[in-house]
Amino acid sequence: MKDNLLKRLTILIVEDDEQIGLALQEFLQKKCTYVYLARDGQEGYEAFGTKAIDVIITDITMPRLNGLEMAKLIRASNGDIPIIISTAYVHEHFMLEAIELNITHYHRKPLNMKLLLSQLATIAKNLYYKQLLDEKNRLVQHVIDFQSNMIAVFKNQKIRFCNKSFLEFFNIDSVEMLQDCHELLFGAEIVTHEKTNMQTLMRRSKYNNLNEKVQIHDLQGKARTFQMYSTYLPLEDEIILSLSDISQLEERHRLMEEMATVDFLTQVNNRMKFLTLLEVVYESAKRYHHPLSIAMFDIDFFKRVNDGYGHNVGDKVLQEFAQEILHNIRKSDQFARWGGEEFILFLSHTDKHKALLSVEKLRKAIEEKCFSYNLKITCSVGISYLKEEDNSYEQIINRADEALYQAKASGRNCIMAV
After folding, report:
1. Does any domain span residue 181?
2. Among 34, 62, 251, 374, which lies 20 to 30 A Cα-Cα from 185?
3. Considering the chain, what is the average pLDDT of its residues?
C-alpha cells in the first residue's frame, strides 16, 4: 500500500546543484510517477503555477529566488501544500522563517533517503485520505444541492453552509456573499401564528426543534410558504435548518377548499359551508341563550328572466343579487346560495324585531336596484327564529322555508315570519 500511495505523488524538486538534483529525481522516479526538476526558486515557482504538484522538495540557497522566498510566494496561494526544505547549512534565521512558513520537514544535506521516503509516504497517505474526504464531501454537496429544499447550517447567527436552493432563493452566488447580506435573511419577516423573524426562530430552535409553517418574502416581495424544520446540535452549537417550499400546495389547497365551500357562480358560500358555520353558531346560541335568526330568499319570477333573456342573463342576475345582499350584511352574518334562485342568511345575536328590520332593508335594496340589462327584480323572504324547544338548526331552516312559501303565496316581494 505504501508504494501504491507513493506512485500517486507528483513531486517538484528545486535544486541549483544539477548533480544533486538529477540524482534525487532519478531516485524518486523509481517510487513516484511524476518528478519534476527546477534549477532555482524562480523556475520552481513557475513550475508550481503550471503543474499539479503534491509535494515540493527545495534547497534554500539558490540564485534569483531562494527556497524560502519561493515558499513564501507559494504559501500566499496555497497554505496546505507540503514543502520539504533541504540545505547544507543551518542558520537560525532560516529555521525561524521556515517555522513561520509552516514548512513540513527540514533536512540537512546529504539527505537521509530512508527518512525522506517515510515522510513522503506519510504525506501521500494524508493526501489520499484528504482526497477521499473531499470526494465524499463533494458527493454530499451534490446530494444536498440536488434537494429542492432550502438547507442551511447556522452557528452564532451566521450561516456556515447552505445548499444551491438556499442561495438561489436569495439570488446569492456564495455563502460568503450571503454573510454580506445578513440582514436580508434575518430581517425577513416570517409569519407564523405570530409575527416574528428568523433571529427569534433561531433562538427558539435551540430549545425546541421547529416544525411549523412559515412565510418568507422573496426578493420580489412575494410571500412564499415553507414548512420549516430545524435540528439543534448541542456539541457543535449549530442549527440545521430545512425549508420545504409548499407555496403551490398551499395555493392548490386554498383553491380546492374554495371550490368545496364557495358557490362557483355567485362566489358566496355554498350550502355545505353555510351549514358548517351555522352549526357552530347554533350550538353557541343554544348554550348561552343568544338570539339567532334565519332568512330564506327567493327571486320572484326568476324563470321569466331565463326564458325571456337567456340563461347567461339569468346567471348575471344571480351574481348581482348575491353580491348586493353580501355587501349589505354584517361580517358576523353568513349568506349562501341554497340552490337555484334560493339563498339563505343567518343573523347571529339577532332577535325577531332586529331581523325583520335588517331583512326589510335587504328586500328594499333588491327592489330598488337596477340589474344588468335594466332589469328590475324583487324577492320574497321567509324568516324564522331559534326557539327554546328546538333540537337542531334544521328545525329553524324548515320554518324559514315554510315562511318563504307563505310570502310567495301572499303575492311575493314581501317578508313573512314564523
Report:
1. yes
2. 251
3. 87
Q: Which domain holds residue 402?
A: 262-417
Domain count, the chain: 3
**Pick from 105, 140, 175: which residue ends a domain?**
140
CA distance 260 to 276: 12
Same domain, 132 and 182: no
Asked if residue 399 and residue 284 are part of one domain, the reply reads yes
- pLDDT per residue over 270-282, tens digit each? 999 999 999 999 9
Check whether residue 135 and residue 6 sit in a common domain: yes
**Same domain, yes or no, for 161 and 269?**
no
Instruction: Decide if 53 contacts 71 (C-beta within 8 A).
Output: no
pTM of the model as a whole: 0.51
Is residue 169 assigned to a domain? yes
95: in domain = yes
Asked, for residue 370, whether it belongs to a domain, the answer is yes
- pLDDT tens across 4-18, in order? 888 889 999 999 998
The last residue of a domain, from among 93, 122, 140: 140
pLDDT digits (tens, 9 = 90+) for 211-267: 778 877 777 777 788 888 888 888 888 888 888 888 888 778 777 877 789 999 999
Q: Does 19 share its domain with 77?
A: yes
Q: Which of 81-85, 134-138, 291-295 has the highest mean pLDDT?
A: 291-295
Catalytic position from the list 341, 367, 368, 402? 341
